[in-house]
Design goal:
The chain is mainly α and 286 residues long. 52% of the residues lie in helices and 1% in strands. It contains twelve helices and two strands, in the order αααααααββααααα. The protein has a two-stranded antiparallel sheet. α3 packs across α5 and α9 packs antiparallel against α10. The longest helix is centred in the middle third of the chain and has 19 residues. About 8% of the residues have low confidence.
Length: 286
């Protein structure tokens, strides 16, 4: 339980919506790079070389192509461009054709295994806050998780990767702030098969209600008894200094010591015959 709990805190706690359009920002990609030769340009120069505040226009006439370009732009955008993205998405939210184009892009990215692109597109669809978009996000959250694949340290990688995407989707459902969809978020907080999604559903439900005590009481009956510590999970709010946050974190860890990593075990001294950091022969001269 302790190991799973720490894993969820490190992964699920940051899964609100990509690009900082809501709360937090993360883009996790486990796909292998496809470029044969890595770029010689550092990321800072790549960012500096692109024009800021110039998102591609999304049009109904060429919905799929324009949405594809917008998702690519969003994946490369920086914090200073948040307002540009929000304005473009607010306008696109009025068009069913553009909403459908986002949905199709998500489906294709997910099928092809392009996790990072699917993560960006899910975040953008959630930011649009539309009924049709939320309906799709609910369907995405309810998709069965993979049961076969690569197991590393007891974790099925394909299952965990899909759960991260579903965590992004449930955050978008909560962001709509609609009573009908809020019931879905509360249900998934206790019933989704992945703890990654359950933890994010709890966080998203509370965040969208200002982390109030009333919201906590509403959600608590849905949450599994052994996971109610997620209801108390602290978050750093805008403008909060390190000292204030550390006080909250200290209080939380005191109330829930089970989430702390165990103290490292001291190893026995090396046997003298191992001769650490020494060579048996003289190295050749250069």
């Amino acid at each position: 339980m302790q190991r799973n709990t720490r894993r969820v805190f490190s992964r699920a706690g940051t899964f609100f919506v990509t690009l900082g359009l809501m709360s937090g920002s993360v883009a996790i990609a486990q796909d292998r790079p496809t470029a044969e030769k890595p770029s010689d340009l550092p990321p800072s120069r790549v960012i500096a070389g692109r024009p800021l505040h110039s998102p591609p226009k999304m049009t109904v006439e060429d919905a799929r192509k324009s949405v594809n370009a917008f998702i690519t732009w969003a994946g490369q955008s920086v914090v200073e461009e948040q307002s540009d993205a929000r304005r473009a998405l607010a306008s696109a939210a009025k068009s069913p054709a553009l909403i459908q184009a986002f949905i199709e892009e998500i489906v294709d990215a997910n099928k092809s295994g392009d996790t990072s692109r699917a993560l960006v597109a899910l975040g953008l669809l959630g930011e649009m806050r539309t009924y049709d978009g939320a309906k799709f996000l609910v369907e995405f959250v309810r998709m069965p998780l993979p049961t076969k694949g690569t197991v590393i340290e007891g974790e099925l990688q394909e299952e965990a990767q899909q759960a991260r995407l579903q965590a992004k989707a449930i955050a978008g459902v909560a962001y709509l702030r609609n009573a009908e969809f809020d019931r879905e978020v509360a249900y998934q907080a206790g019933n989704h098969p992945s703890v990654i999604v359950r933890a994010e559903a709890i966080s998203a439900y509370l965040w969208n209600r200002g982390d109030t005590l009333e919201a906590r009481k509403e959600l608590e009956p849905f949450v599994r008894k052994e996971e109610r510590l997620y209801l108390d999970r602290v978050r750093r709010v805008s403008g909060e200094g390190a000292e204030a946050f550390n006080r909250k974190l200290t209080a939380y860890l005191k109330a829930h010591p089970e989430v702390q990593a165990p103290n490292p075990e001291r190893k026995d001294p090396r046997p003298p015959e191992e001769k650490p950091n020494t060579y048996d022969v003289t190295p050749p001269k250069f």
